[in-house]
């Protein structure tokens, strides 16, 4: 995996309140290459630090493709360079600022899984390989009901998923279904992806981005620190042995329990209980109002 690809990519970013809609231009073939990785890294860094950004929707500028797959030259050249060094005994070069290898790529996706921002993939078209792995790294996926598919075809090139596909897809649909899909290389149709739980909604193509923004707005109303803690507990704690997962959950809970916002909302809940003579979540309309607002009012 090497330096910047020949055709630079571009992220077109629009703010919709606390949600950013990011349309990715991966060039005429809509490839996920070094430029996409570097711009994604910078975006994740930005939204993590910005308290006013609560969600990000990823879409595409390409009329048929969310993200085709990885730039195969990027992958192949990295392997060829490694083989050449093994033959000559040359040490690996010092990575430049623009170098993106597997470790850096995985770090980007793992950071997406660990921060208090909700990421939604708006799959208006096809996504294969690293394009699918990018979607799996998002928290939610909305898929078009026509002209769309998603999957891991790497076995057809004599390789396997390298961007987390064998791990994240397995956690979404289960070990056996993931194994068969990756061994076969055939992508999921929208109906299959929805049935298996690989995507969260299937809607008409014209409605994909709007539905993704709706989901982003809804979940983005929740406390940002709480969202991050929940994501870490589920994504990372869910893969640990149960006692270790419980310890991670406890650590995240205790951090939120002493936070200013957590204390404020819990005290407000107690005051509201005294005023109503009933628990606010059980009062008529109370739960629905809290879900809409993202907190108990």
TrEMBL record:
UniProt GO molecular function: isomerase activity
Top-level taxonomic group: Bacteria
Gene Ontology biological process terms, A to Z: fatty acid beta-oxidation
Keyword Isomerase set for record: yes
Xref: InterPro entries: ClpP/crotonase-like_dom_sf, Enoyl-CoA_hydra/iso
Keyword vocabulary terms for this entry: Isomerase
Pfam families: ECH_1 (PF00378)
Protein name stated in the entry: Enoyl-CoA hydratase/isomerase family protein
Organism: Pyxidicoccus fallax
